[in-house]
Design a protein that fits this description.
The chain is built from five helices and five strands.
């Protein structure tokens, strides 16, 4: 049995002192140790994007990163998007433009889109579609996801 390592993760502005095995993924640490279950586990191979979080502002597949690699870095999950009861523009846009159906992929898309829009607020349609194509959705057909992100981008620029 591998000995657990004590680390401190800064997630959504809150420090979490946890003990994890060195092979524990960031996704598992977020869900099991930090009790932040918004990050979903899908394929666990980095293909589907359901586990996408932002690490130092960049979109990362949390199933492919070890929790120990995130120590000393800033992690943002879907729980960190809203400000209290006020939804983030992306969350509102996904709701208003029907950008979700079953909702399983939604946290990953929200975090991917947040990272993209924060880095490139004026991203063009081709760039947006390219960026969003890295995450998989089995329900929506993607059109409403793109519409939602476009609407949120407009609001976020204001």
């Amino acid at each position: 049995m591998t000995e657990k390592r004590r680390i401190v993760l800064t997630v959504n502005g809150t420090e979490h002192a946890i003990a994890v095995e060195p092979r524990c993924t960031l996704a598992d640490a977020l869900r099991e140790e930090c009790r932040l279950t918004g990050t979903h586990l899908g394929c666990e191979h980095g293909v589907c994007g359901a586990c996408t979080v932002l690490v130092d502002g960049a979109a990362v597949r949390a199933c492919l990163m070890f929790a120990v690699q995130a120590e000393g870095r800033t992690v943002r999950t879907v729980e960190g998007l809203a400000e209290g009861d006020r939804m983030h523009p992306l969350q509102r846009a996904f709701q208003e433009h029907h950008g979700l159906q079953c909702g399983f992929c939604t946290p990953g898309f929200l975090m991917l889109a947040a990272g993209v829009l924060e880095e490139t607020p004026d991203i063009d349609d081709a760039g947006l579609r390219e960026a969003l194509s890295s995450n998989l959705c089995r329900c929506t057909g993607y059109q409403n996801i793109v519409k939602a992100v476009r609407a949120a981008a407009s609001e976020m620029r204001r």
